Amino acid sequence: MNLIEVTNVSKTFGKGEAAAKVLNNISLDVRQGEFVSLMGASGSGKSTLLYLIGGLDRDFDGTIKVCGKDITKMKERELSKLRLETIGFIFQFYNLVQNLSVEDNILLPELTKGRSRAELKKDLDEILEITGLSDKRKSMPNELSGGQQQRTAVARAVIASPQLILADEATGNLDSVSGEEIMNLFARINKEKNITILQVTHSEECAAYGTRTVRLANGSIM
Predict the structure, then answer these.
(1) Band of the pLDDT at 73, cuts 50, 70, 90?
(2) Architecture field, domain 35-57+88-221
């Protein structure tokens, strides 16, 4: 089963003489359970494609289906629901709430959905163990290393049991050791929880953790 279906997608920034085409007739399928690394040089269009798949930018030509649903035909409320229930986002910057503890940062999206702390306790304990943050659950973000902050961001994305994780240069702000920890974590989540992962990276080492690598150059798949 294809979890992601991208068909003849093109994206242009600007208009007229200032127009710049960053994606050129891209087609890409990602199957359920895959861990796909999207590689390319800066400006190749890889992050743009990730944002389109995540429904964060809807101004493009072509069609994109996520979990069998055509996001190009969705109303904004429907798309927001799909993102909330189906997709976990992980970015280069951790985007943690600074006045909340590790566990409160992880729980925040689920609490806003109306789930209770008691209901989430088992899931929270499990994801803290998986991410190696059990002893940091009461710590504040400013008490954590960069790697620990990014692991918190991963835990926040995973606790909702999404079908898909979209990661944009998740190791970009980390040293090599912390980056390796994040990649091992992705591989474990992909294998043990069967969560499909599409990551954008410029690193051959990070890309190698995936089950497949797709390369972009000048807005096209090589």
Answers:
(1) very high
(2) 3-Layer(aba) Sandwich (3.40)
β-strand partners of 37: 199, 213
Calpha distance 151→147 (Å, rounded): 6
Segments making up each domain of the chain, as ranges: 35-57+88-221
Backbone angles phi, psi at 20, to 5 degrees: -135, 120
Q: What is the per-residue pLDDT across 7-59, written as a single tens digit (0 to 9) for each?
A: 999 999 988 888 889 999 999 999 999 999 999 888 889 999 999 999 999 99
Sign of CA dihedral 205, 206, 209, 212: negative
Longest dimension (CA), the chain: 57
Write the single-letter amino acid at 160: A
Q: What single string gives the DSSP state of each residue in 12-73? A: EES-GGG-EEEEEEEEEEEETT-EEEEE--TTSSHHHHHHHHTTS----EEEEEETTEEGGG
With tokens 């190698």, the residue in question is 208
The residue among 14, 81, 9, 15 whose CA lies nearest residue 50 is 9
CA distance 40 to 99: 36
Burial 32-53 (b: 16+ CB within 10 A, else e): ebbbbbbbbeeebbbbbbbbbb
